[in-house]
Specification:
The protein is α+β, with helices and mostly antiparallel strands. The protein contains 3 helices and 7 strands, in the order E-H-E-E-H-E-H-E-E-E.
Length: about 120
């Protein structure tokens, strides 16, 4: 079952409450007139509130994101992010096909996103 991550930029929120009208259980009105994302965790690095949800909660939150007039709500599929990360982590070593043709030839390799030149 797919999982999704909601990222909510509360600083961008203007308190239009359109998301509350769509999904009040997830987007209740806060005391300051903006909204909160129920059960969310604040990410210090991104400065956004985050919540992982199951597919059963995706549609209602997608609707909430679509009605937000300032795009403060972004929803991404978690598997998509993991697939991209695995793809970057699993870089294969690329070697020059002429590496064994003489002692003074340079060997170029790409390994773990770094470039090195080895003199043989």
């Amino acid at each position: 079952m797919p999982k999704y991550k909601i990222e909510f930029d509360r600083e961008v929120c203007i308190g239009a409450l359109a998301c509350t009208a769509v999904a009040e259980n997830f987007w209740p009105k806060a005391e300051d007139g903006k909204v909160d994302l129920t059960n969310a965790t604040y990410n210090e690095k991104t400065k956004k509130w985050e919540l992982n949800i199951d597919e059963k909660d995706y549609e209602i939150n997608k609707d909430a994101a679509e009605v937000c007039p300032v795009d403060a709500i972004v929803i991404t599929k978690i598997e998509d992010q993991e697939t991209k990360q695995e793809s970057t982590e699993n870089k294969e070593e690329i070697q020059n096909p002429n590496e064994n043709q003489g002692n003074n030839e340079k060997q170029n390799t790409v390994e773990n996103n770094s470039f090195s030149i080895n003199n043989n």
